[in-house]
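Handout, section 4.2: multi-component inputs.
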Amino acid sequence: MKKIKYSEITPEKIYKNRRSFIKSIGLGAGSIAMTSFFSTNDALSQEEKKYTSYKDITTYNNYYEFGTSKSDPYINSQNFKTKPWNISIEGEVENPIKISMEEISETIESEERIYRLRCVEGWSMVIPWMGFSLSKLLSKVTPTSKAKFVKFESVYDPDQMRGQRYPVLNWPYKEGLRIDEAMHPLTTVVTGLYNKKLPNQNGAPLRIFIPWKYGFKSAKAIVKIELVEKMPTSSWMWASPREYGFYSNVNPDVNHPRWSQATERVIGNDIFAPRVKTLMFNGYGDEVANLYTGMDLKKYF
Amino acid sequence: MNKFLKPGIFILSLTPFIIIISKIYFNQLGPEPVKEITHHTGEWTLIFICLTLAMSPLKRFTNLVIWIKFRRMLGLFVFFYATIHLITYVVIDYRLDWQQIFNDVLKKKYIFIGFSAWLLLIPLAFTSSQKMAKLLRHNWKKLHRLIYIIAIFGSLHYIWLSKTIFFKPLIFMLIILVLLALRIKIKKRETNYG
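Output:
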């Protein structure tokens, strides 16, 4: 698969042009998802093929709160209640808030953001998310100078999330970013995908997505965002500090004891398609490499 | 009836293979087809290891010698599925990229132990015939005790490749340990009586 640059994946112009083309041939914008289901061999569907299918994105998930198998989240999350939903943003901030999902979607507009997702297990997808930069949400609380890191906490609800009844990870799921990573425009608060409301199995009602880091960094069903002074310990660091570092940037040169990080399998490709080379920072190096100037990324993996 | 038992078990043992071939043919392997084949054949290798190890305890509990007649065939199916498992990894997944495969074997302990288990299976497969058993005599029994090590390696292979505490790999480990523990008892009895 061709490398998708940031300049290529937020191509407002091209995308809008294509959108207007779709509209002009009488399909609503919402039917983008459908075109990938029933793709024919015209130019439009050729372009759609760049994205992973809606079906694969929504039925092949790592979301241990709903079970450890890839098909579990889709099966076990259908009755998960995401209303009402409040997110508390607190810690080293001028004005901590508790904000409802409704208020977030009313005050911050989501846009389509097409990013590559690279899982630490060695597979990848291309996902047309709906969302906005996390910095927009954080501007509501004004972080203080003591806010060096951002800690994300997912919901804990073992009644609804059967995976949480087992000590697979130290629940609730915790993740973290350095403040400059969190403020980077690529760091996205996700509210939907394929122009639809975010499905439960993908982290509804609200998750984050950090395109240049392995997928597990992107916490789902977030209820708390805390700005802190000290580096937080994520659930995966806690489970195995040797395997999962705080940064977890996509890096083909840092080996993982289980999966090859030099190459990856593109989801949706057929059985005889070869692995493709994994790119440093998942191909977003032009945008994010400057965050790590002077850092030994083999040490701070 | 006994006449049909062995061919029947043979066909049953082939069904996991037929299932995966038909899934490939009908394109039903899901989003990560190669991983699906790898996992399917890996899991069936472990199941056949358990079945093979279960035969002599079954013989003891039921007082029926017939179980032992299936043991060799089941053991050969271990080799069969383990080999497909390995071929999937080497040929389909890594397309004979020897540098990366070599790297994996040395750097990833689960691949190292899995590959070792497959190597240990080779002498067992080649000496599985009645002829070889006669030729090797006492050594044959000793040699074929390698299956105990292979079983433990196989279950460690599964545990080490799991991301966190998963149940399935632990269940396989537990079953294998129980099957091995039953043998320790046999030996004690034998020495007591002897």
